Here is the input.
Amino acid sequence: MDIEHVFFDLDHTLWDFEKNSDLTFQKVFDKQNITVDLSSFLDIYKPLNKEYWKLYREEKVTKSELRYGRLKKTFDAINYTISDELIDVIAIEYIDFLPDFNHLFDYTFDILDYLKEKYQLHIITNGFEEVQTKKMKSSKIFHYFDKVITSESVGLKKPNPKVFIHALETANANTDNSIMIGDSIEADIEGAINIGLKAIHCNFENEKINSDKFVSINSLLEIKQYI
Here is the structure.
């Protein structure tokens, strides 16, 4: 495999979004005196957040609707009375505080050190532009990457093929010498495969995957077996 360029997703792939997000909510709730059981809140919030991100990828909700709606629906579901004004404050503080936490998945530095010697590394992310760079700098991985392509800079979101094509053009790469690594089968893996890119799926939750179109790994160190 003549790989020269490795494109990574960020959240849920290198940056441990769930752990960092949980810590962020704890910080925001403490600051705003939100008296809810955090685990009960998160049990409702996490699937709702996934639904909203899917709608966001499909251009069915805006960024502001995502930020407000996922919180409003969660508080309603747990019967916690809260004003729209406070929801807006929480939404803003959540985004502000999120990059303060910098937990990465196991072996992130090991695999980035290994790959950096051999390949040009890049990020393709659907995450909000103002947050992603802060996350990468806070967790000390920003310097590993030559190009960082955000969906907001393109004006479209993965799995839209134009995002991947734009990323390849930005990195001066092509489908033959590049590979995509990410956690979302829909956004990262199928999106990449649909334009002819090879792909590796990060399956850190050990879900049952049946596909011969791509390989799934349970640890970042397994990338060494494929490139």
